[in-house]
Structure formats: C-alpha cells, structure tokens
Amino acid sequence: MLQWVAQIVSAVAVVGFLIFFANNVLQAAHARGLDLGYGFVGQAAGFPLGESLIEYDPAHSFGYAFLVGILNTLKVALVSIVLATLLGILAALARLSTNWLVSKIASVYIELIRNIPLLVQLFFWYFAVFLQLPSVQESFELPGPIYLSQRGLYMVWARPTSTFWAWLIFLGVAVVLSGALHQILFRYQIRTGRTTYPVATALVVLIGLPLAGWFLVGGTPLAKTVPELGKFNFSGGLRLTPEFAALLAGLVIYTGAFTAEVVRAGILAVNRGQFEAARALGLSPGQVLRLVVFPQALRVIIPPLISQYLNLTKNSSLAVLIGYPDLFFVGRTIINQAGRAVPVFGLIMASYLVMSLTTSVIMNIYNRRVRLVER
Predict the structure, then answer these.
(1) What does each C-alpha distance from 148 to 139, 141, 159, 224, 355 come to in angstroms?
(2) CA distance 178 to 193
(3) Are strands 157-160 and 238-240 parallel, antiparallel or unpaired?
(4) Which end of the chain is more exposed for a tag (fewer CB within 10 A), N or C?
(5) How far apart are CA 344 and CA 322, in angstroms?
(6) Is 170 helix (H, G, I), strand (E, B) or coil?
(7) 3-state SS, one letter per residue, for 269-300
(8) Which residues contact residue 130 at a Cβ distance below 8 angstroms, ignoring those fewer than 6 apart?
(9) Residue 37: phi, psi to the nearest 5?
(10) What is the C-alpha separation between 133 and 240, in angstroms, rounded?
(11) pLDDT value of position 121
C-alpha cells in the first residue's frame, strides 16, 4: 500500500513540476514578446538546400524544408546502420580469426577508430580526403564506371520508369511470400526431420516472382543511367555529394568498430561445446556460424546493438559541421530565417525522439523473438 502511495505522490510531483516549468516558460516568452506558435511553418523558406530526396526549391515552406531535413537524416542513418552492421560482423570475425595477421589488422582498426572522436574522423574524411580529390575534369575513374572528384562520387544507377510501381508490387509480394514460405518450411523441417529446403525455396520465390513481373508489366521497370562528363560537371547516374560521402564514411567506420566488439562479445558468449558439437556433426565453418553460433549469439548481441543504432542516428547531427543538410542543419537554418528558436528546437527534439523510439521498438520486438525463454 505504501509503495502505491509513494508512486502516486511521485507522479503528482513530476506532473506538477512540468506544469510549473511550462507555465514559467510561457509567461517569460509572453513578457519578451516571443511567439511560441507554429504558424510560421507555412511561410516560404527562402533558402536553398544542397541535397534533397524530394524535389525542393526556396519557394517551398519552412515545414517542407524541415521534411527534407528529416528525410536526409533518415537516408544517411538507414544506409549507415546497414553498412556499419556488415562491417562490424566482418571485423568481429576477423578479430576472432586464427590467422594472426588478419586478427591483428582487425584489432588495430577497432582500437584505433574507437579511441578517436567521431568529429575528428568526420573532418578527416571531408577536408583531408574528399575535398582533396581532383577536379571534375581530372576525376579518378574506377570500374563501373565510378568517378571520384571534388564534386563527389558518380556511379551507374537504375532510374525508375513508368512501369516501376507496378513491378514494385511483384517485388513486395515476393518478399512477403518468400519470408512466409521460409518460416513454414523451416518449422516443418524442425518438427518432422524431413528436408524441405527452406532457404532454396525462399530464394526461388524471391528471385523468380520479380523476374516474372519484369516481363509482365509491359516495359522495363528500371532504366540504366550512366554518368557522362559534360563541360562543367557530370550528368546522369547517381551522385553522392562530398558531404554525404564523408558523413557516411565517418558514421559507418566509427560505428562499425563498436559493433564489432558487440558481435565479438556475443560470439564468445556461446558455449565452446556448441562449436565442437557442430563440427562433430560435419558442419562447415560457415554452417557452424549461420546455424549454431549466430542464432545463440543474437540474444547477447541485440540489446547493446540497439544502443549503437540509436547513437548512430543521434551522431548524424554532427553533419551540420560539414555542411550536410540533415535535420539539425535545416532546423538551425530555419531558426536563422524565422527567428523561432524554441518551436524549432522542439520539433528537432521531437523528431529525434520519434526516430530513436521507433528504432528501439523495432529492435526490441526482434529481441523478444530471439531471446532465450526459460521454462
């Protein structure tokens, strides 16, 4: 009973403090003539942005510009999470390798990167690497073709055509159907002991259905576009700006080092007898990792990995220091243009909170699926 009373009193005290704080802020703002409303978001932004996932020009509203910043942040965060995870897994396996040289190279990478501040690394990639590349006319050409210059990285890309959205339906159905078939066949195989080839079946559906849709939609869904050098710059293909490339490289390499230690700890947490039993069954090293080690290691890996993903998303706000128009960069620009610091910072904090909570919820749902349930 006393515990419930203590919790109710604590909740009332917290709510009372929040009301008191909000009331003081509103009174102080009113005394200084500050408008804390969001009526300004419909006004013309009046400033350009160097990079946008959606069409943008200065005539668009502040709210639209803020949306561009959110999408830019999501773009770099999602790509970085995928690449940092892959890099972390490779670095972890390399550090656990019995090959002395491979293990030491991985150890040097992890220890070196983890002990250098991310901001320093971002400055290195931006000012010492990408801005030191040759001019457009003297670009480095790599197989692909891929062109590297001070203007960024240009590569071959696939441009959606008018039939792309129809083909996307086939792709979506293939992803859902292949996942469902894999789960059904895998569970049936575990229950009965009969070979059902769940992975092969899922791959056939995942590849075959989109391939069939490619010919059924009545045209090529994707058209190849190749970068071509013009008088002043490249046209066509996919361009990664120096700001995006530097931010991506910094976030991936930095977070990958921390992810490697998380993955290594998860693998070492698996009982040594599991490795020996798997090898005794005649499984290859790849099968041991895929079928025995990683499924058990994930129970240890996922919780700290959530923190790394959240840190990566929040660390992307350092993009403002190298000129990438992310959420924080656009928010600061809106403050300078509209003079509404409190409402804009409120939007910025709310946006990062929603992204962090969404990431946490998704990863926690997956964590509940793989954790060990004691009976």
Answers:
(1) 5, 7, 21, 20, 32
(2) 21
(3) unpaired
(4) C
(5) 21
(6) helix
(7) CCCHHHHHHHHHCCCCHHHHHHHHHHHHHHHH
(8) 150, 152, 242, 245, 246
(9) -80, 175
(10) 14
(11) 94
Query: What parts of the chain have a pLDDT lower than 50?
Result: 373-375
Q: Domain map of the chain by residue range?
A: 33-131+242-375
Find, among 349, 336, 258, the residue nearest to 301 by Cα: 258
State residue 69's pLDDT score.
92
Q: Is 349 left (phi over 0), alpha (psi -120 to 50) or beta?
A: alpha
Let me know: does 36 contact 26? Beta carbons within 8 Å.
yes
3-state secondary structure of 115: coil
Going by DSSP bridges, is the β-strand pair 152-155/146-149 parallel, antiparallel, or unpaired? antiparallel
Closest CA to 338 of 26, 25, 47: 47
The predicted pLDDT at position 147 comes to 85
Cα 140 to Cα 151: distance, rounded to the nearest angstrom: 12
pLDDT for 375 equals 46
61 three-state secondary structure? strand
CB 237 within 8 A of CB 155: yes
d(CA 205, CA 15): 54
Tell me the backbone φ, ψ of residue 228, rounded to 5 degrees: -125, 135
Q: Which two tokens stand for residue 305?
A: 């990995």
CB-count burial class (<10 Å; 0-12, 13-18, 19+) for 361 = exposed
Q: What is the pLDDT at residue 163?
A: 87
Q: Strand ranges (DSSP E) for the chain?
A: 140-142, 146-149, 152-155, 157-160, 222-225, 228-229, 234-235, 238-240
Which residue has tokens 């009372």?
16
Which residue's entry shows tokens 């509103």? 26
Q: Which of 50, 13, 142, 74 is nearest to 316 (CA)?
A: 74
Alpha-carbon span 96 to 293, nearest angstrom? 13
Q: Which of 227, 71, 72, 75 is nearest to 145 (CA)?
A: 227
pTM over 0.85: no
**33-131+242-375 belongs to which CATH class?**
mainly alpha
Look at residue 315 in the predicted model and tell me its pLDDT.
Answer: 92
